[in-house]
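User: Hello! I'm new to structural biology and keep hearing that structure can be predicted from sequence alone. Could you demonstrate with Universal stress protein? Please show me the input and the output so I can see what each looks like.

Assistant: Of course. The first part below is the input, the amino acid sequence of Universal stress protein. The second part is the output, the predicted structure written as tokens.
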Amino acid sequence: MTTSTDTSIPTDAIVVGIDGSACAELALDWAAREASLEHRPLVLLHAVHPPSLGAMAYVESSGMEYGDLLARLESDGHALLRHAAQRVRAEHDVSEVYERVRMSDPRTALLEAAAGASALVVGTRGLGPIRQLLLGSVAMAAVKHAGCPVAVIRGAEQKNRDVGVMVGVAGDGHDATVLDFAFRVADARGLPVTLVHTFWDAVGQAETREVPADDPRHANQLAVLFEAAGPPSRRYPSVAVHHLLSRGFADVQLIASSRRAALLVLGHRRKPFLQELIYGSVAPRVVEHAHCSVAVVPVGDEPDA
């Protein structure tokens, strides 16, 4: 394994955010395994938000030079990444590991690093909707704005989940990149893929939402799943494929089904800020409430209203 400490981000690398937390350690394990399985470079990224003007005044009043403080923060960041790289070296077969420290807002640093990445991997502390609204979330910023797939790792990887990689199929013409990512991960990890398509239908609280595969009333909806599975199945013939058709709200079905999945994959069309604020989006809601790790794949931007 080679370790580089320059400043560039290699194209098609797996980038993982490292901040010293337990959730970042889980993200590191997932990212390192993915980099090993796909034979890709791994970038360990640590970002430090420079102190505010108020904090700077306090630091200088205590006798410490502002420049010295920045140097100390940067040095601590490099030490954190060295430790992470050592763990990757000991536990995973990754040929290229790059350590990157950025003195900027972590959200900005991750989004910039993800520009040419194969995937961005982050941990989540599971703050919940109220604290998330008040405090903001690095993971949610990545989900909403990154230009590459974002894997939000929640808990240790579960190998015994019966549906393997679950992927939401919208049937709106934007599923190809989502399916390709899901099949790519499943193929590397030897997992099956379960395609889920949910169509709107009024359902009661106690009603079943899953539709039998032989129900002739929903043949057109079932066809969406079979047509979607065709191209990626030909590219990844060793991946076993299952189908799940359901009625109701897509986010409700995906969140409920995530209890059985090792990874949930879905697409996200980025919205203009005002539309995001008013209407929200399925992907952030699923990331917030899913019971497994979630990968969100960008499928383009929605136009301004």
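User: So the tokens describe the shape?

Assistant: Right, they're a compact way of writing down the 3D structure. Reading them back into a model, for example: The chain has two domains: 2-153, 165-301.
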